[in-house]
User: Fold this.
Amino acid sequence: MAFPTEDGLVQATDDVSFHVDLGETLAIVGESGSGKSVSSMAIMGLHNPKTAKISGQVLITSMGSTTDVVSASSETVRKLRGGTVSMIFQDPMSALHPYFTIGNQVSEAWLLHNDGTKEDARKKSIEMLDLVGISDAKNRFDSYPHQFSGGMRQRVMIAMALVNHPKILIADEPTTALDVTVQAQILKLLKDMQKEFNMAVILITHDMGVVAEVADRINVMYAGRLVEEGQVDEIYKNPVHPYTIGLLQSVPRVDQIRGTRLKAIPGQPPSLISLPGGCAFEPRCEFAKYVPDNRCKSTRPEVEIKLAGHQARCHLSAQEVRSHL
Amino acid sequence: MLKYISKRVIYAFVMLFVLSIVVYLIFGLVPIDPAQLSCGTHCNPVVVEANRHRLGLDIPLWHQWWNFIMGLFQGRTYGEGAAIIHCPAPAFGYSFPNNACVSEVMAGAFPFTFTLAVGAFILWMAVGISFGILAARKKGTYIDRLSTAFVLIGSSLPIFILGLLIYITAFLLHMIDPIVQGTWVSPLTDPIGFFKNFIFAWITLALAYAAIYTRLTRSNVIETSSEDYIRTARAKGVSERDVLYRHNLRTALAPLITNAGLDFGGLLGGAIITERVFQLPGLGYMSIKAVLRDYDLPLIMGTTLLAAAFFIFFNLIVDIAYAYLDPRVRIN
Assistant:
């Protein structure tokens, strides 16, 4: 995915390929500007076709038929949105329309994808609001968003996203704007809902703690590319890509010796307008010096299987990285 | 909601009350003596004093004000015997240059002002909002630039120039007859004559106001379209059409109510320049004549208070409409 700007083409994501199955949670991790949100917008077909250039495929298989979001008509994609693929967003304070009751907003989502009366929609919405833990949903149905707390609003968002029993739920930093205690509740709710509806969940976050709690697999993104992917415990135990290693080292751990400083990754992420020909992480990489012939600068690494169920985009093998740690 | 409305209504009345004091004070202090003015050419101090008594101006200012307020509710009688003049409630005073009660003069002028304001209002709201939406939807295209040009011309051209240009054009095209222009024609008996009387004045006023509303609508719609809840609407599968008309416009147009209410309320007090240019004897025309030619204090006071009352009344309407539209206002 790329955005033409006055300064040049911003290559927001490049050569990104991943899949997610029903009942599975895939976490996409990366810092701001790494392309994780942009990818999710592309899955939803929510990017502006006038400003974004997109190539490749987004295949969604549901009920035995497969649709490519990129090439499908806008009407087809509109029907997928909120029906087969749903999304919840970072800031529940601003993601709900302030002028409509929450019931109205949840019902609207149902009515858009089902044939039924407003009464049916109301019934379905109350059921759903009840399920996501809005107490007294029947009476709260006619309340406005500003009458709810942040956590409750995020529950309303989840109810709205799930009212049509989607196959895929994209959660874009769903807990970033919430208190830590509320975060845990929302994460648990997402897990419960996933079990209930057997959904594929794509969780976009930069919070490694959240990832460890809910994800099955991880995609680590850097500068618009997937740099490492694999099973959650695999990656936490044996990170291969230097960026992932840096990311994990920058998170405080309970078993860490007191008084030791957290390690930060030096430098800044590169501009996406003119990425170097080699590895995008090379300028910040501590391991680049171990790669012969300056290959990190000259050759872009391809995705390789490094360990069982674990791939990364690095010139070094898992053993080589380990030996230099 | 009821509490909110009653609070606003009380505020409005307090405002009107204070306003009447301020206006009365100002007119009591201006160096123009209505008694002297009403006396005519064969004047001597005795007649002036007699007139002063007759007009009720020989008592302290606060008492005059009190009589004025009471007159609004009960009507007033000036003079005694054969020269008695009675103005029924609401009595704003007596206008000597017009030889009529101020309320009668204003009642005669009001239909012109009202028709002018309503027609222009409908026109400018329709044009301004639809242009604004169009420009926002076609942001960056030549349609958008065209609307920017319209906004620039409409808001920078003074209304007396715009009005004259339109008047002269209409005159040269034989679409306006200066001799009959401005005589009241009932829309029931002669709808075409009625329209001919007002259409160019409507266009003049509407052009000036539509420019502002185009700009407001365009920027509000564009601003709202980047709100998170618009993205949410898209994410749940709302069609682009409904995203605009159901989700976006609801928030984008709400602030326009403030402008619309105040502009319309202001116009009901009289559109001085437009009425003057198009020879429409409305409240604006009346008051400018009263100020510049007749020094007709009671009439000036009447039109001032009436204009202010309209303004305050529409302020109230705006507050209530806002509460109706925005639940956050309603519940607080």
